[in-house]
Amino acid sequence: MTRTGTVEPGPQRPRPRSGLVVPPGRGRTLRTAAQQVTFKVTGQHSRAASSFEVVVPPGFDVGAHVHTRSEELFYVLEGELELLAFEPQVRTRDGWREWESAAGDRPVRATTGTTVLVPPGCPHAFANPTGAPARMFFQAAPPPDHERYFDELLDILAADGPPDEAAVAALRARYDIEQLTPLRHGPPPGPVPKGAPDRSEEG
Question: Whose CA is closest to 151, among 41, 33, 32, 6?
């Protein structure tokens, strides 16, 4: 029985959790010949998305691909990238730079400040056609699939010899990545001097 004028104690509210602050240059970094990825926010800290800072070297082309479940966001921090985020009229297998949608959309040259949101089921790609590295902020939801993908891809690419294409294909399938055009890295597109080796590489 409650006395007049007294207040029943209410349910205890959870104490506010501390936020996460990641200073410039901090975070776990994975480096390959193809690109450099720094983990900024992982599934350990966020239920919404994994966040990364990605350095894209000259000539790198991630290849057009699509996810059935993941949503992604790209924000160009520095440099220039070619970006694609639409369903083309025809999905050619050799490359995506000439793709066009039924509405007339074409790949765009993205400069600093460009933001691209990619919903599930939307083909997308990025490439660095310039002679200087580009840097972008990248989010993938839900976590932590992309974190695990980057970790396992690094293990494959770190092995001696050319990348194990079967292992890379199996990895992509496991993490909801349907590759539509090849991943390549090497010098930016342009005339290849006679006798120069082709450094493009699928992975």
Answer: 32
**CA-derived radius of gyration, the chain:** 21
- Please give the backbone phi and psi of residue 61, each rounded to the nearest 5 degrees, phi first: -135, 110
- Provide the residue type at 37 as one letter: V
CA 44 vs CA 11, 23, 27: distances in Å: 27, 18, 13
Q: Which residues contact 176 (CB under 8 A, 6 or more apart)?
A: 67, 68, 69, 70, 145
pTM of the complete model? 0.79
Starting at the edge strand found earlier in the chain, the sheet holding 115-118 runs 28-31, 36-41, 50-56, 134-141, 71-78, 115-118
Q: 144 preceded by cis ω (within 30°)?
A: yes
Asked if 119 contacts 126 with a C-beta cutoff of 8 angstroms, the reply is no
pLDDT in tens, the chain (203 residues): 444 455 455 566 566 678 999 999 899 999 877 778 999 999 999 999 999 999 999 999 999 999 999 999 999 999 999 999 999 999 999 999 999 999 999 999 999 999 999 999 999 999 999 999 999 999 999 999 999 998 898 888 777 777 778 888 899 999 999 999 988 877 665 543 343 333 333 33
User: In sequence order, what DSSP letters do the residues of 41-62 get, joined into one string?
Assistant: E-TTT-SS-EEEEEEE-TT-B-
**How many residues are recorded in the chain?**
203
CB 138 within 8 A of CB 72: yes
